[in-house]
Amino acid sequence: MAITTTTIVPTPIPVEYEGITELGQDLSIASRREIRFSISSETIAAAGAGDNQRLLITALPPQAFAHVLVDLSLIFKSEDGGSVNWPAQFAAFWNSNSTGETEQFAIEMRSQGTFATGTGNNERRVYAAARLPGAVFLPRSDAANLLNLNVINPTANDAAYEVTFFARMLEYNVRQAYHWRVNSMVPVRGGV
118 phi and psi, to 5 degrees? Predict the structure, then answer.
């Protein structure tokens, strides 16, 4: 039995905020911008005889800033009219260095259900994070990824799938990231 791996490395998409000067930004709890990672309809190839499928998604936001993960979702869609056989829950990892040895959080990804897609008998299984870490992370200069999603389909010989992925992070200046209000769980984080 072998594992067929599909690796996806989404490009960070910055969403700029307007209205606060850099000096004002350092004194506020408002993030400077959002960084989004989005993949739509990427194909996971069918597994060979006796093989399993593996999906690996790694995301690295700009490294000169601090980040807070605020949204994470994933959708598997069957392409052959069959059922979605990926596990009902799995873990994604949020860490601040290339080896994952320090400041690592496992994020439980739970299935929100399986739905018909409206085209043929294809199913769609939607996953969302059960709880996000909430911590502010400063990526190290040697970081290979900050968000790492690695899931294996336990069903051998399974069909091809389409995958849709979305992650959203708030970005802070490093000086601002050390402010107690940014690190507090009480304020609602968000844009300007």
Answer: 95, -15
Q: Write the CB contacts of 73 (distance below 8 Å, at least 6 apart in sequence).
A: 126, 127, 128, 129, 165, 166, 167
Q: Which two tokens stand for residue 57?
A: 């998604």
Task: Give, for 22, the enclosing helix (H) or strand (E).
Answer: helix 22-27
- Indicate the residue type of 181: R
**pTM higher than the cut 0.90:** no
Q: Which of 72, 74, 107 is nearest to 92 (CA)?
A: 107
The domains located in the chain, with CATH, are 3-183 (2.60.120)
- 33 strand-pairing partners: 16, 171
Q: How far is CA 186 from the centre of its chain?
A: 23
Kindly give, in sequence order, each residue whose CB lies less than 8 Å from that of residue 177, ignoring residues fewer than 6 positions away. 66, 136, 138, 183
Q: What is the pLDDT of residues 100-134, one digit of tens each?
A: 454 567 888 999 988 887 666 778 899 999 888 87
Higher confidence at residue 106 or residue 56?
56
